[in-house]
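Give me structure tokens for this 405-residue protein.
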Amino acid sequence: MPVFRYRALTEGGEVVEGEMEAVSGEAVATRLQTTRHFPIHVEPRRAANAATREARLGALFGRMSGRDLATFTRELATLLGAGLPLDRALEVVASAGAAPRVARRTERMLARVRGGQTFAAALEAEPGFPRLYPAMVRAGEASGSLDTVLARLADYVDKARELRDTVITAMIYPAILVAVAVISLVVLLTQVVPRFRELFADAGATLPLATRIVIAASDWLSSFWWAVLLGAAAGVVGLVLGLRVPAIRLAWDRMLLALPLVGGLMRRLEVARFARTLATLLANGVVMVTALAIVRETMGNTVIAGGVDRLIEGLKEGRGLAGPLAKAGLFPDMASHMIRVGEETGQLEAMLAKVAEAYDREVAVAIRRLLALLEPALILTLGLVIAGIIIAVLLAVLSVNDLAF
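Here you go.
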């Protein structure tokens, strides 16, 4: 009897994985459902191993962008809404001028669907799709409204991409300022200051302390520039590897939330992501506990993700969503209040959508406010550092001139 690997959600929202002998994947899914598990993915063991290797390679060399994902979803929803069967719709998307990386993924999913897998299972085997994607597709397949679900998914992906693009675009100018500052300092210390040092050495004058410090920094940078590069690379690698350790990541995320301005911006970003993802899942028939378990995986901050875990525990105890959310104190009071109103009026999905829209606007305002402070601060810091180096050199020039007269 063949062995199948599966991944499923428990009633408590936990993800479990394992293997099971059965005559088919459908039999595995049925057996999981009888034990009150929500099957996410079922696949033969050998196929699962191959899919895992393929997914890792795809994640490294061909990850779908938000724009590609939105286009793929919108086109597929349109074709299904026009009455095309799923396999024919996938075939059209793969051959209708899609980007090569999207076409290859679509062709692999088409082969799996024609081989008897559900669309949700085919999605689960592919890299680049958010975790809520196959969960919502599975709910759409079960309810017979896959085209509607995909249209909502396209809206979700578009809005999430717009929010991410807003943040990235806002950080371009500060990044350019920092790069210019670093390049300017390197040029001054390695090209300009050494020429003055030769002049001062010939004059034989005792240089001011500020000048000696600048010259020492120039000598060190000229001799050990490789150490600076290695140190920067080691710092980046160490940070990336360190953030993979749960305790370090938790401390890092807690520190970010405590920073002035930055902490508030991150909270607003997480509120918008939480509300939009949960609203989308609930609107497509995913039960609350399962939806929260999926939402937890989309959170970028582990402190807030831990707060979502407490929300799941509160739901199990029958305390609803708004009460534990307000008690956790991770989201602004206004967000908790709006969610409470949505629960009390039976319009939680609509209220969550409004929360997402409201905090999208707040994120835009917070970014503008942060940039209004960050840009002049960077310019002022750059100006002061360069002015300090120039003044140190001028002091030495004046001292040499005094000796000459």
